[in-house]
Design goal:
By secondary structure, this protein is mainly β. The protein has a single domain, classed as Pectate Lyase C-like (3 Solenoid), CATH 2.160.20. The protein has a 10-stranded parallel beta sheet, with no helix packed on it. Strands 2-5-8-11-14-17-20-23-26-29 form a 10-stranded parallel beta sheet, with no helix packed on it. The radius of gyration is 17 Å and the shape is globular.
Length: 238
């Protein structure tokens, strides 16, 4: 694509289960839904740009397994990439810009989210990456992402089991990384800066192992609230 199919949506509709769709550089002004095993791959990261349509999710992955989204530019939408009731999902090496509420949103599901660059639209409730309502699903992994100035949280985890490792989070007026609502998380090797209130928040009966993180520019680098527990070692704070 382009050439083989007129739109990305058409390619998804006509692809066999387990197929790989390779996007040529260019703009794809679309919102698409993936509900079976597929891979969508770009060339140079961000050279194939999908989105540019107001509202909703640019790419929705629903009720499936075995999906990979790699090397795309995702532009606009309320959510860049949405994962609902799905597992064995890989979201890697994408550039996600201008999302109004969530850059990547995983709800009732599990995903490996790695190597993405996320710069959402400004706003007090915006989250770069969220995993929520997923305690009965496999653990999600959030690693090696760069999140630049999400308005609310850089990374937020609610009712989920997650590893958060080696991310670079800049901004987050509420917290750079928040482990909320009876979640369990390993939070290690992250660099968190300019998260004005909390660098890492462990909240509401959650448990986190917090190791080897570097936190700067927060009023409270690490905050523990509401019957939560935390194991700390090797963190650096200013």
């Amino acid at each position: 694509m382009p050439g083989d199919y007129p739109t990305l949506a058409t390619a998804i509709l006509e692809a066999a289960d387990g197929a790989t769709i390779t996007l040529a550089p260019g703009r794809y002004v679309e919102q698409v839904v993936i509900n079976r095993s597929l891979s969508i791959i770009g060339g140079e990261p961000g050279s194939a740009r999908v989105g540019g349509v107001a509202g909703g999710a640019v790419i929705s992955i629903r009720g499936t397994t075995g999906v990979t989204i790699r090397g795309l530019g995702i532009v606009g939408g309320d959510i860049g990439i949405s994962v609902i009731e799905s597992s064995d999902i890989t979201i890697a090496d994408n550039i996600i810009t201008g999302s109004s509420f969530r850059g990547i949103d995983v709800v009732y599901g599990a995903a490996t989210v790695t190597g993405n660059r996320i710069q959402p639209a400004p706003g007090p409730y915006v989250i770069g990456i969220r995993v929520a309502n997923a305690t009965s699903w496999p653990e999600s992994v959030i690693s090696g992402n760069v999140i630049d100035h999400a308005g609310g949280y850089g990374i937020a985890v609610n009712f989920a089991n997650v590893t958060v490792d080696g991310n670079d989070v800049v901004g987050g007026d509420r917290a750079g990384i928040a482990i909320n609502e009876m979640s369990h998380a390993r939070v290690s090797g992250n660099a968190i800066s300019e998260a004005s209130r909390y660098g890492i928040l462990v909240h509401d009966m959650s448990h986190a192992v917090v190791t080897e993180n570097v936190i700067s520019g927060s009023d409270e680098p690490i905050k523990l609230t509401y019957h939560s527990t935390v194991e700390l070692s090797g963190n650096e704070t200013d």
